[in-house]
Amino acid sequence: MIVYDLICAQEHVFEGWFASSEDYDRQRERTLVRCPLCDDGSVTRRPSANIAMGRTEPVAENAAQPTSPEPQKQAAAALTAMRTMMRNAEDVGPRFADEARKIHYEESPQRNIRGQASAQEAVSLREEGVEFMSVPDFLVKDLN
């Protein structure tokens, strides 16, 4: 896996995980790489602080091991919680924008929903103050 620091045209900074640099290029060309905050498909890579450098000295056998796996545990727990939330949300499919508006304007009961919205629908929802977030495909794959 490769982790890239990415930025959208609206200057939202986020991370993207890809199988390879070619995978990133393919997804970007098809505008599948989108900002999770504004759903902008105009995304570019930023210089990353995670640069692998060769060692100039051998590492001692008794060298300190990486500290705590806590950040990885927290990330795994967050992904599990997100997947559980998505599994328990009502799948409204392509009606997502309409259903989200109805809930926002209290024309429909408050509930968790998931579905698909076009980039234009996402922009309109944000302009109206409807709160939602885009999630990566792997979180919603095989939920039903």
Reported for the largest beta sheet, the result is: 3 strands, antiparallel
Overall 3D form: globular
Helix and strand succession?
Answer: EEHEHEHEHH
Strand tally is: 5
Mean pLDDT: 80
Helix content: 25-40%
Roughly how many Å apart are the termini?
27 Å
Q: Which class of secondary structure composition applies to the elements?
A: alpha+beta
- Rg calculated over all Cα atoms: 19 Å
Strand content: 15-25%
- Uncertain residue segments: 50-56
How are the strands of the largest sheet arranged?
2-1-3
Number of helices: 5
Structure explained in plain terms:
- By secondary structure, the chain is α+β, with helices and mostly antiparallel strands.
- The chain is built from 5 helices and 5 strands; from the N terminus they run ββαβαβαβαα.
- The radius of gyration is 19 Å and the shape is globular.
- Among the domains are: 2-46, no CATH class; 88-140, no CATH class.
Give keywords.
globular; 144 residues; alpha+beta; three-stranded antiparallel beta sheet; two-stranded parallel sheet; 5 helices; single chain
Structural topology:
Layout: E1 2-8, E2 13-18, H1 21-29, E3 43-46, H2 70-88, E4 90-93, H3 96-104, E5 113-115, H4 119-128, H5 137-140
Concise account of the structure shown:
35% of the residues lie in helices and 17% in strands. It has 144 residues and is an alpha+beta fold.
